[in-house]
Amino acid sequence: MTTPLAEVASSPSTLRAFLHGLPGVDRVGADARAAMLGTRSIKTTAKKQAIDMAIGMVDLTTLEGADTPGKVRAMCAKAVRPDPADASVPPVAAVCVYPDLVATAVEALAGSGVKVASVATSFPSGRSSLEVKVAETSLAVAAGAAEIDMVIDRGAFLAGDYLKVYEEIVATKEACADAHLKVILETGELATYDNVRRASWLAMIAGADFIKTSTGKVSPAATLPVTLVMLEAVRDFLAATGRKVGVKPAGGIRTTKDAIKYLVLVNETAGPDWLDPDWFRLGASSLLNDLLMQRQKMATGRYAGPDYFTLD
Amino acid sequence: MSERTERLSVRKTYKLFIGGAFPRSESGRSYVVTSSKGDFLANAARASRKDARDAVSAARKAFSGWSGATAYNRGQILYRIAEMLEGRRTQFASEVADADGVSAKKAGELVDAAVDRLVWYAGWSDKIGAVLGSANPVAGPYFNLSSPEPTGVVAVVAPPAGPLLGLVSVIAPVIVTGNTCVVVASERAPLPAITLAEVLATSDLPGGVVNILTGSAAEIAPWLAGHMDVNGIDLTGADPELAVTCEELAAENLKRVLRPPADRVDWLADPGIGRMTAFLETKTVWHPIGI
Fold first, then answer.
1. Does the beta-carbon distance from A303 to B252 stay under 8 Å?
2. Of A3, A308, A30, which Cα lies nearest the Cα of A193?
3. Does A292 touch chain B (CB under 8 A)?
């Protein structure tokens, strides 16, 4: 790296030169590596540990037009005590809601240790003016959100206007004050792994505390190879700058098997330091029930049924 | 290429039937199936508990669509299964003759009986409600109506004898009323069951309504009996010891249990409606008069 990272965003051309100077991603290699790590067999006590670890990393999410305060309160109760019949199940890391429901979630989770995350910046499309995005972020933070999940302007990114994306992330980070900023790259719209690597670096240089794969509204959402590329980016970023950034795959992770594959990927790519809810999260809703069902199967020796867990 | 080489016949791989597809066992295991005389017939997949779990998921997924279909539609599909079975009469007759050691003539009769059994149950689809349902007189201004409803996902341990007729006789009554099922086929004679699966797959029967596993009932049935997402279990083909184990496991989520028959069953006899009622439950609705 010829230019110090602090200066790469000084002009559109230096930023562009830096991002396009990143090494390209070997697509076939990344796919093969992710597929190979997905075949690791995690059984018995290791599986038990992995399930509890995954539960503690879940960002329990509801992002529907039909969300009501009642639904958010019910979800918060589940976040604190995922299985009402079993107190040994750890609480999840956070709940993730739309900005207008942050106050409801904050009230419901007071004193529980479960954080409240809010999406912001015209989620999920990100198509609005910077003023609106910053104002939305400030409102969510004022309502008590401890974490903000922002979306990048994919249109600007794909058009090559990297500085615009950078400046939006910087402005949103400022509006976050003490709240953690997760930057959603929406990898399903970025087309190539090279773009995923560029967007990851762009977000980290701009001050992201976390980089997140997807909104969950676009298919494909999180995939193992994309997460692999992002984990490599945070690892390399730590080596280059000394600052550690978290990763959050979100969307499409529905089974315990999937979740454990992600944990293996984290361990083998970024390292065990990232196996912590402060540095790795799983954005999901239906995943939690599958984790609970697997947990119950291991405890009782019989296959569990969805009838015995709450709907969400 | 002057010499003619003899053509090699293409052999069928006997696989499982789960969710409308024909996967191999997740475990990769298989076992040798022999005829009644001990001759090699084929290698069949030996299903594991995980195959059983996948089959239950497929059956659960299919349940809302199948139970929500009209009774008329379900009857038509059962009739269609009978049509398809009739078209494969020769193939089934030879498989039944191999498996049971019966004469070709007798085997043909057993296949005919299986076709007739399907048609018989197909006719029941829109009549069972009239027989078991009722308009109940109540002391108040209400209509009070009871109607039979399907139980849900039913595990079926198919009888070891009667590889086709016995199998059809336990599957048809479970699905005609709207249940979906996971069937553990006869361990000794599983080949007609897999051929039946090919018939089911081409009969407009939605994938997952019937799932067929081959392998050891003693290995798989207890997992199905203990599964919290299975609502009923038919133990017709279970030996006494296995039946007791399964019934104990089934108690955890109060499954409906159909115990194995005390005496040897004559599958050619009139079946009656007992196999249908075993996996039906009654729903009663109170509706105010005049609204």
1. no
2. A30
3. no
Q: How far apart are CA A205 and CA A166, in angstroms?
A: 8
Give the CA count within 13 Å in the CB-facing half-sphere of B140: 6
Number of cross-chain residue pairs from A and B with Cβ atoms under 8 Å apart: 26
Using a CB-CB cut-off of 8 Å, the residues of chain A touching B230 are 305
Phi, psi of B42, rounded to the nearest 5 degrees = -170, 170
Write out chain A residues lying below 8 Å of B51, CB-based. Answer: none
Active site residue A248: yes
Question: Looking at the domain covering B44-263+274-288, what would its CATH class be?
Answer: alpha beta
**Cβ–Cβ below 8 Å for B226 and A308:** no
Instruction: Report whether B188 contacts B159 (CB < 8 A).
Output: no
Q: B228 and A301: CB-CB below 8 Å?
A: no
The whole model's pTM is what?
A: 0.92
Distance from CA of A93 to the nearest CA of B (A): 28
In which region does residue B247 sit, left (phi positive, over 0), alpha (psi from -120 to 50) or beta (all else)? alpha
Instruction: Judge: A302–B252 Cβ closer than 8 Å, yes or no.
Output: yes
Phi, psi angle pair for B71, to nearest 5°:
-60, -40
At B127-155, the pLDDT tens digits run 999 999 999 999 999 999 999 999 999 99
B-chain residues near A301 (CB < 8 A): 226
Residue A83 main-chain phi, psi, to 5 deg:
-120, 105
CA–CA separation, B138 and A211 (whole Å): 64
Q: Which CATH superfamily is domain A24-299 in?
A: Aldolase class I (3.20.20.70)
Domain positions in chain A: 24-299
- Give A25-72 pLDDT, tens digit per residue: 999 999 999 999 999 999 999 999 999 999 999 999 999 999 999 999
Alpha-carbon gap: B226 to the closest alpha carbon of chain A (Å): 6
Domain edges within chain B: 44-263+274-288
